[in-house]
Amino acid sequence: MSVSLSARVGTADLVIAGILWGTGGLLGTLVQRSTHLSPVAVAAVRLAVGGLLLVGLCVLTRRAIPRDAPAWRRIGATAVLAAVFQGCYFGAVALSSVSLATLITIGMSPVVVAVLEHLTGRRALDRTRARSIALAVAGLALLVGTPGAGGSGVLFGAALALAAATAFAVLTVIAAVPVPGLDPVTSTGIGFSAGAMLLAVPAAVTTTSIDITAPGLLGVLALGLFPTAIAYTLYFRGLTAAGAGTGALLALLEPLTGTVLAVVFLDERLGVAGWIGAVLLAVALLTAADEPGSLQVREQAG
After folding, report:
1. What is the pTM for the complete model shown?
2. Which tens digits make up the pLDDT trace of 204-213?
3. Can you tell me whether residue 88 is helix, strand or coil?
4. CA-CA distance, 89 to 78, in Å (whole number)?
């Protein structure tokens, strides 16, 4: 496969991942309502179900168990960063609001990725990329709205959201460099299963009661399958071809898709500013999809 075709396939993987992530908010809301799990418990269950599904796939397809140190270091980093990202994000939602947590977490991720790639020499932060990031963040701000004033919890919520953004950005930058002998299905499956175990204690502490129903179990399965197992596997696979910067920007498809689903299925209303933000965000995402990939891709092309 040529480098240009590989980059296009990688971009397609990232787009599908972003769209599937957009279903996570709707599915997570339905799971919370039907099971009464705490937000952190929903995050733990999401990682556990998604991870175990992928581990089961590894067993069925007889994938080789990673044996070398670099592979297990990657899996360990995936576990820790996924747990921090999920835990901090849902903690930010609980302490502040969905809009503030989304704005900081999703909006700051491409900024942090751009800075990390620039500092490590992987990809320069040029004007075109800076404009795409600025347009995307502006569109996201209009889409999710301006968070209202709150109590002291807002400050801590913002700090947790920033920690979540940093964890997601670091995971994105790390995952963009493949590890020989380690495929995305294996690393995501084992890493997410371990990440769920790291969230087990806070999940148990914050959940006071559980209501087990057939719709709830079906929602948990869908949450673990579509926006977790499938989406993250595609995301990590696409990063190696399209680059971390493109991946972080296309991750903004999550709030865009989530907003559309909320309008259609949850009867939420989107004002004029929200629609303008959606258009700006869509333009930024289309620009990102057409940009060249990472420095690694450009070197391979040469």
Report:
1. 0.85
2. 998 888 998 8
3. helix
4. 16
